[in-house]
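Treating backbone geometry as a discrete language has practical consequences that deserve illustration. The amino acid sequence and the backbone structure tokens for this protein are reproduced below.
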Amino acid sequence: MTSGPGTVRAGAAVELVDVPAGTPMAGFAARLGPSTGVHDPLSVRAVVLDDVALVTADVCTLHEESCAQVRRHVRALGLEDVVVTATHTHSGPCVGLGRAGEHDAAVHDRVVAAAVTAVDRARRAQVPATLEYGQATGVDVARNRRHPDRVIDPAVQTLHARAAGEGGVPGDVVLTLVTYPCHPVVLDGANTLVSADYPGVLRDLVEQATPGSVCVFATGAAGDVNTGHSAESSFTPTGDGRRTFAEAWRIGTVLATAVTASATHPLPADRVSLRSAEVVLPVDADGHPTWTGRVTVLAAGPLRVVGLPGEPFLATAERIVALRPGRPTVVLGYADGVPGYLPVTEEYAHGGYEVRDAYRYYGMPGPFLPGAAEILHDAVRRLLEEDGGG
């Protein structure tokens, strides 16, 4: 199947993963027990644009080795590449190979298999499609959890793929990719039901508004962003009673409304491609260890979708967006491996959970050193310069 001028091939698919009661849950060091059931099924979702795939899974962390495993299988399908992300829900199972809690090998293998199957189904479902981009601000959801006095207003960003209709008439929406930089941690450590948190609500509502389509949510650079509580609350097994399913529903509804109500604009694209670069990040521990991962840049016409590993802070995304003034740029976190927080250098002076303590929960030998986030930024900058359209 080929696509005509101004169109790409687009498809999406969803695979559900069984998570038995008793599975260890990730996201809270103080959670007292394993899962007791499922509130909403763990989904693995794939988007395939031309020969490039993006996968999201309703889990807190994915190890880079797991992401590489998916990548090998996807390339064997004949695709160019795949970016594998965790939504970072704190109500998902432990599948991080020892990061963010006790590892469950059986569920991990199901997630990996579901990712490959979802990509294959999305590839087979591809149709010629046109792309549309939109964004909305003013949703009043995200908070800088390290500096509550700082007002932030990151955009809810949306990419639609719409089936190319006859005679230039737009067809139905095939898929919607939504990103927002805010921790899916509305539910606190008292919750023992597997859940996608607010992204699950958002996806359901967007799909209801565009029947027959698939909505995929990918979390942005949310390392220092949540809905208004301190990161240290991870050490408390129960909260104040306000972090409930009802609150997750409210926030998901606010964001879904922003997606469905915001205007979108045509995004002329004849081809989708992906570039990647290896990054080696320094770790603050004896023996000068490093962590090796990658950053990616997906190009579709004037749009660039950047994938960053770990938990980058919002400032890194803002600085990447500033590299392309006036052009649509989406920055994803939790991509191709989640080894911990990546604060910008100026945040180290403020200390706190993300800077000093979280590496232990991630099973790392130490926190990342100042400058690690800037290494990500510089690698992305070089990729944008190399692709000629950055």
User: Anything to note?
Assistant: Helices lie at 64-76, 105-124, 198-209, 245-261, 314-321, 353-361, 372-386. The chain has seven helices and 19 strands. The two ends are 29 Å apart (CA to CA). The first strand starts at residue 8 and ends at 17.
